[in-house]
């Protein structure tokens, strides 16, 4: 197993919170195991785009997943970066991040989900938009989960893989982006973001998706 951490990963800000894992042996794809397409650098995710997060982690703050510990999933809408910066404090959410969650709370990734995927469906294909990174507790109102924005790393990922290139696919949002109209009420102030877990590890072996 080889771990390739992004050279600009910042543990203080959680920026560039991504790494690649090269497995010691190939993955055998089946009807139940297959690679996911990754969001290409040209992808655009407007506010309210539906996304799904999966994992085996806590189902609430301090509440472990009960037996038989089946894989869980939750649907949460994308929250635009302007709104997310208002929530976490201006400057805490960078272009390398994407947020998702309900304004009312109640649905979110949680402790132990770090490194897991958030995906959206486009033209019949699942595209990975983000990697679980950090948040304020779990499913708190007005604090969406924060994810590494996969589309920002197409060049870096391709530069680290010499064969079996990963499949990148452009996600295109329709309609208008309501986040463009967001203005923080107290832009000079902000609540700092707190990581709910120690984060950095990404997802895939050097597999590819036919997109």
Please state the structural category.
mainly beta
CATH class, named Mainly Beta
What is the rounded distance between the termini? 26 Å
Determine the strand fraction and express it as a percent band: 15-25%
Which sheet architecture does the biggest sheet show? 6 strands, antiparallel, barrel
Helix share, percent: under 10%
Output mean pLDDT: 85
Listing every helix as H and every strand as E from the N terminus to the C terminus, the arrangement reads EEEEEHEEEEHE
Rounded to the nearest angstrom, the radius of gyration is 17 Å
CATH architectural category:
Beta Barrel
Number of beta strands: 10
Number of domains: 1
Strand order of the largest sheet: 4-5-6-9-8-7
As for the CATH topology, it is Thrombin, subunit H
By CATH, the superfamily comes out as Trypsin-like serine proteases
Number of helices: 2
Contiguous low-pLDDT stretches (5 residues minimum) are 188-211
Basic shape: globular
Structure, explained:
The structure is a single chain. By secondary structure, this protein is mainly β. It has a single domain (2-28, 35-173), classed as Trypsin-like serine proteases (Thrombin, subunit H), CATH 2.40.10. It is 7% helix and 25% strand. The chain has two helices and ten strands. The protein has helices at 81-88, 154-160; strands spanning 2-5, 19-22, 37-39, 50-55, 72-79, 97-100, 117-122, 125-134, 145-149, 168-169. It has a six-stranded antiparallel β-barrel with strand order 4-5-6-9-8-7. A two-stranded antiparallel ribbon has the order 1-2. Strand 7 and strand 8 form a beta hairpin. The two termini are 26 Å apart.
